[in-house]
Amino acid sequence: MVVMMADFDFSQAIGEARTKYESIAEALNIERLKSEISDLEQQAAAPGLWDDPENAQKVTSRLSASQAQIKKLESLESRLDDAETLFELGQEEADADSLAEARSEVDEIQKDLDEMEIQTLLDGEYDSRSAVVTIRSGAGGVDAADFAQMLLRMYLRWAERDGYKAKVMDTSYAEEAGIKSATFQVNAPYAYGRLSVEGGTHRLVRISPFDNQGRRQTSFAAVEVVPLVEETDHIDIPDSDIRVDTYCSSGPGGQGVNTTYSAVRITHLPTNTVVTMQDERSQIQNRAAAMAVLQSRLLVMRHEAEAQKKKELAGDIKASWGDQMRSYVLHPYQMVKDLRTGYETSQTQAVFDGDIDGFIDAGIRWRHEQRREETEEAEKS
User: Fold this and answer.
1) Cβ atoms of residues 257 and 239 within 8 Å
2) 218 with 208: CB under 8 angstroms?
3) Which of 39, 147, 203, 268 lies most in the core, judged by the most C-beta atoms within 10 Å?
4) Prediction pTM value
């Protein structure tokens, strides 16, 4: 007796899963990955590794990420074999429970393969880097400042959920509520590749908690994402090209948090790029952190000039308010929708609690398709 599974072709499903697995394994280049792991293991075993904590953190993070990729690939291959065996046994023994379990396992494998497939799409020049993210409030007054703070919390919660190390580097608080701007760093392999699709203008529609008449308010915030610079980037900034100002750090509502001039503002005169940093304890630390962010932004500008493509890395850094990439609607209905990919959800609270992987994955797929179409157009012309 053969047990049939209504509306489900197991052979087709397992075949599609194996094809996708093979495509991912080829794209990730397992032999190259194993060679990279071997090299990183040697670096990690070096006696003086932790003499340079920043480099040590980079080496151990990349090693951990690469080992996790290999382990997941090997696990997926084994799970595919086990699911196929379970299905065959279920057919032979007419065991409906075994067939249902096999189907459930294939569904889970497909989800894991989809997740791994995203990794193969992160093939941009700087996608493997850590990320520096800046959020700025835009049009909308106090609601916009509050929205900017909501986005900051959302991204920090996202990093926490995914096990990424995030550090707030600078916060400029608004007078009434929320923030004028904030800059944070996410230290993890491929953090830039994932977060770069979040760059752009975000829009919030809700009943304003700051309006005593309870009117609906639309407010905006800009998100800028740049890759963290590395020593090999060679971004030389002559002292004559920058102006450095120091001032006292401040907390919410302008309340002083210290009485020393530890906060630093660096202005890059040729491009009028301004970076502020106040969350470190000393002026020296804040200056070093500000220079790192400035170099990251100049790196993006240099790449844009060389490639002659605006928005290729960090998007439009100045942010155009008429170019919203995502809307968060809390009234008259609940909906978060990405206007580029069409991905949406009614679980608005979950989104603000950091559940944004669906948006990020859709954005990565959309960007990959855009690049593919651009390449095809270029080849035709």
Assistant:
1) no
2) no
3) 147
4) 0.73
Question: What is 259-275 written as a DSSP string?
Answer: SS--EEEEEETTTTEEE
Check residue 109 and give its pLDDT: 93
**What's the one-letter identity of residue 372?**
R
Q: In this structure, what token pair is assigned to residue 282?
A: 């000393």
Residues across the chain: 381
**For the chain, which domains are there?**
10-121 (1.20.58.410), 131-376 (3.30.70.1660)
**How far, in Å, CA of 285 to CA of 26, rounded?**
43
Backbone dihedral angles phi then psi of residue 216, each to the nearest 5 degrees: -75, 140
E strand residue ranges, the chain: 131-137, 165-173, 179-187, 200-207, 216-227, 242-247, 263-268, 273-277, 324-329, 335-338, 344-345
What CA–CA distance (Å, rounded) separates 236 from 333? 50
Q: Which residues of 187-208 are buried (b: 16+ CB within 10 A; e: fewer)?
A: bbbbbbbbbbbbbbbbbbbbeb
Amino acid 197 reads V
